[in-house]
Amino acid sequence: MNALYAFFAVALLMLVAFFGVWGLGWNTLFAVMIPYAALAIFIIGLIYRVVKWARAPVPFHIPTTCGQQKSLPWIKSDRIESPSSTMGVVARMAMEILLFRSLFRNDKVQLEDKKRVTFQGNRVLWLGGLVFHWSLLIILFRHSRLFMQPVPDFMIFVRDIDGILQGLIPAVFITDIAILMALTYLFLRRVVFPQVRYISLPSDYFALFLLLGVVILGVLVKTAWKVDIEGVKVLAMGMFTFNPVVPEGIGPAFYIHIFLASVLLAYFPFSKLMHGPGIFLSPTRNLINNSRAVRHINPWDYPVKVHTYEEWEDEFREAIRGVGLPLEKE
Amino acid sequence: MYDAGKIISGIIIFFILVSFPIWISAASGTIGDVPELNLPADEEQCVEDAEWMRANHMDLLIDWRETVVREGVRVYTASDGKEYNMSLTDTCLDCHSPKAEFCDQCHDYVAAVPNCWSCHVDPGGS
Amino acid sequence: MPEEKLKPEEILDISYTPPQKDWIKPDVKFKKGSFGYAAQGKHLKYLDLPNPRDWRPQEDDWQLPEDWENIIVKGIKERLGKNRAFQLFLDVCVRCGACADKCHFFIGSGDPKNMPVMRTELLRSVYRKNFTMAGKILGKLAGARDLSVDVIKEWYYYFYQCTECRRCSVFCPYGIDTCEITMMGRELLSLIGINANWVTEPVANCFRTGNHLGVPPHAFKTSIDSALEDIEDVTGIKVDAPINKKGAEILFITPSADYFALPHWYTLMGYLMLFHEIGLDYTWSAYASEGGNFGFFQSAEMAKRLNAKIYAEAKRLGVKWILGGECGHMWRVIHQYMDTYNGPADFMEEPVSPITGTKFENARSTKMVHICEFTADLIHNNKLKLDPSRNDKWRLTFHDSCNTSRGMGLLEEPRYVINNTCNNFFEMPDNTIRERTFCCGSGAGLGSDENMEMRLRGGFPRANAVRYVHEEHGVNLLSCICAIDRATLPPLLEYWVPEVQVSGVHELVGNALVMKGEKERTTDLRGEPLNGKEGQEDV
Predict the structure, then answer these.
(1) Domain membership flag for residue C529
(2) Do A294 and C245 touch (CB under 8 A)?
(3) A247 Cβ contact list (under 8 Å, min separation 6)
(4) Claim to verify: residue C105 and residue C177 sit in the same structural domain
(5) Pairing with C397, which of A168, A197, C172, C216 sits 20 to 30 Å away (CA)?
(6) Chain A nearest CA to C213, separation (Å)
(7) Residues of C in contact with A49 (CB under 8 A)
(8) Are the C-beta atoms of residues C476 and C394 closer than 8 Å to each other?
């Protein structure tokens, strides 16, 4: 049900772009104005959200330690999973962000004969997530050729590696196939696995469908409904100089691709997609495990009502004297 | 504990990184350059409609190559009924030569690296 | 035990497949055996907490204050501004579900709202409704829901079905820690007078007498004295235990259960014997007579109120540094919170072991050292004469406490001590130890008898791993460094693996420690015959 809501929402967006371009001929709106607006919303929204997090302090020092602390010199500490230095934190964060370290730990619990539970390593989600995110990054990087002049050799090198299968199948990039498979998996697990279906909200499906829509149309305008790529680049480069020229004769598929990507961009700061910037700020991951060695300050710390020794002694004076323990006031 | 400095630097670094295409283009001073095509003065019409050719010429050329090499057929009948010799050097480059002033303009611009020139030579090139 | 005692296969008659129906409409049944009693009004009054009254969770009317909705929404807003983790964790979850089967309560109950992601959604849905644009406009479609009494009831049920063990945060790709959410949830509930008695009563006791059990100073002294007598019975040595002694070098703090409950008692004997043997200049405190901190299970403020006594007492007694006994959440508070709450402890000195000269640089700011760090250092420097064969009747495994493993990283020190005091040590499977350790199922204020069924469920994954090593290696002792573990694992294992007993690590030290001038030991600290000794006498 939640998946259907999201599906219809994305389908509606596609129809809007289709009729906007094909029916009404609002090409400039979809090729220029909306992308500009989406980019502005993305930049302002992203900064707004991160600043909002940043305005709340981290009052306590709460790293989740996943390894041996640094204590006695002869005990080998885990410098990354229980970081004892800034470098350790950097390494931990890098592993988390680039390799999804925590997700790699995943195991699956099974109950056997109502008697015992067993654990099995399960890294499918880790693989699916990693393939999706890395493919997305490489695809975005490939797109950068449309936004720069001249195109550096390094970019062409990455593209050639990604396109290495083109000797066999023309116009196919490894990352295109990979991202489609990964997104399909990420969607299917939400509908197939009951636990994940239970927790999935329409917004979870929405993000997936939006991404699927962008990718599928992107592949289509590269293979089936080819567009004048030179015209597209003139448009993209023109956006930087605020002199965009909308190319003639490009079919609606390209505009839908651009429109969905714009929606994704504008949606980003107001959704769970903020997990990307968020992970950098996660206090269970980005703090050094040194809270007994270096004092962490809570900026809003305030005095609290305590039960002082004097009050305690006053209440129990006779009893304390009775067992011969020392008193401050006899 | 706010770490404001780290967070602000993080945001700045992020935007510098993702906007690298702008910096590269701006540094090279070619940000506003667009391809300049040397078009034939005496021909009005390419083998197909120019707009179609812009997006699909690569498919047409691959098609030509395969028809000529595999089937030995050399005549292409365009959608307007006109017939052309299916030849990159004799037909295409007859109008669009040298390639540096036509093909390379867009190919360099969008970083496309066609493999035409690993077999063919550019008759107009020096 | 629950009155109509459920059989293990009845407890485990569960499915991990959630119902088809969505969760957005609050739905909670207070099932006998699965929740703790509400805090009594008198304790709230003593602690100056809002809305003191006597009430029962299973009754319809919770006697909430009139403007309770306002209080909750304002409370959320305040906490969003004061705690980045709270805000971030509400915002960034992608509901990937990696945490789902990491929670011992989900594994043991199959209740989908015990999936950590769902526990948070219970609060996140209200956050969306009140603090996000999408939630305000799209409502249910955006996973938002209105605050209602039933939502509050769900919060009470499920935030007191979380032991704040942080296991989910190990597996979460963003490090979302449900413990943080549960702590905030409980703080919010406390604002409208909803507290669990198993938390608030110990807090009130601790505030007044200095310890959770409400042991007054004279009973404290008597109790320690009687441990000294027990030590004399076993070893023939008269041991001294100074209390409230000014000018001692070290203040020793341990959870109160250590001097009042079984099997903690034997660990207490272990500490006392060790300190005597190395001639430590130390003191106990009858005022700061609690290492644990149940305030931590109620609110940050309450944790700070109780924790303040430790530094205050260290200052009054003029000690150089503090040594802390075996406890789980006590060490989470000391390691990650104490210095922030009540520091700086600049009136003390950087801890140095008077026996080995080792500087505990990792504790140079809080000035508090864990007994396992201290003892491991003694052993490493050959300062103790140990006879591990005295523990030969035990084939043991070690249970990492949630807090010392995931909130501190104290993993190798206790293992080092065990390996030097015992001959037969076996690890439980990798997925169930160290940072992946399973909770006893009764921490964070859930350890009440009326909550026994849920405790047995939550503790099942731990017991399951113990049973595995029991069957594989004949393990008959589960050693641990947590007072709540020592209190709650015995009934848990009694139910799931009755052949296995529970001990602290320093009980093993006490057994193995060869003391100067001791008589030949015939019994261990439990008064049970030493291995083989019984046989020899019988010959």
Answers:
(1) no
(2) no
(3) A227, A228, A231, A232, A234, A235
(4) yes
(5) C172
(6) 16
(7) 91
(8) yes
pTM: 0.94
Number of domains in chain A: 1
Q: Which domain holds residue A173?
A: 2-303
DSSP for C376-432?
Answer: HHHHHTT-S-B-GGGGTT--EEEE--HHHHHTT---HHHHHHHHHH-S-B-PPPGGG
pLDDT digits (tens, 9 = 90+) for A144-202: 999 888 888 898 899 989 998 887 777 789 999 999 999 999 999 999 999 999 999 99
- Say if C36 falls within a structural domain: no
* Nearest by CB: A230 against B11, B20, B109: B109
The verdict on a CB contact (< 8 Å) between A198 and C112 is yes
Cβ contact (<8 Å) for B31 and A241?
A: yes
Check B22 against A148: CB less than 8 A apart: yes
Domain that holds residue C360: 204-512
Residue B23 domain flag: no
How would DSSP label each residue in A279-317? Answer: HHT-TTTSS-S-TTTSPPP-TT--------HHHHHHHHH
Contacts of A68 in chain C (CB under 8 A): 409, 411-412
Q: What is the mean pLDDT of residues C317-331?
A: 97
Q: What is the pLDDT of residues C35-76, one digit of tens each?
A: 999 999 999 999 999 999 999 999 999 999 999 999 999 999
C371 shares its domain with C493: yes
Per-residue pLDDT reduced to its tens digit, C57-66: 999 999 999 9
Whether the predicted interface score ipTM is above 0.90:
yes
In a domain, B33, yes or no: no
Q: Subunits with at least 3 CB pairs below 8 A relative to chain B?
A: A
**Contacts A–B by Cβ distance under 8 A:** 95
Domain count, chain C: 2
